[in-house]
Amino acid sequence: xxxYLKNPLVLMLxxxxxxxxxxxxxxxxxxxxxxxxxxxxxxxxxxxxxxGLSSKIQWGFLIVILILMFISWKNYTKTDFIILAVLxxxxxxxxxxxxxxxxxxxxxxxxxxxxxxxxLHDYFIYxxxxxxxxxxIAIILQFKRNTVQ
Length: 149
What we know:
This protein is mainly alpha-helical and about 150 residues long. The protein is about 75% helix and about 5% strand. It has helices spanning about 10-30, 40-70, 80-110, 120-140; strands at about 1-5, 145. A two-stranded antiparallel sheet has the order 1-2. Helix 1 (about 10-30) packs antiparallel against helix 4 and helix 2 runs antiparallel to helix 3 (about 80-110). About 15% of the residues are buried.
């Protein structure tokens, strides 16, 4: 049994996207609050900027990946396209629902308003974690077995 790549460009883009995503969401985000001398407003403003930019970059990656998958569609299964649809759905929820609300909360906090806690931040963390797991699955699914001898 040998393993074959469905499309090396798709694998490369998924790996690049995953690396960038994991670095921003799970490394940069918590670490910025550990930096001595950084103020909460600065950290929140940086988070707002980074997540907004990260979302746009993720859209770009996923659109190119989808195009490449359609070009070599015979190599892909329904599961591959479902995985990509789930990633796009999570990203859309974050981009058009979660991030606008969280960004406006940051703006209110930066203007000095006191806000009651919201579970939306937790939902965003769950969505980011789900994306990390789904991206890992998408990478694994880029390999196919050829059992023909």
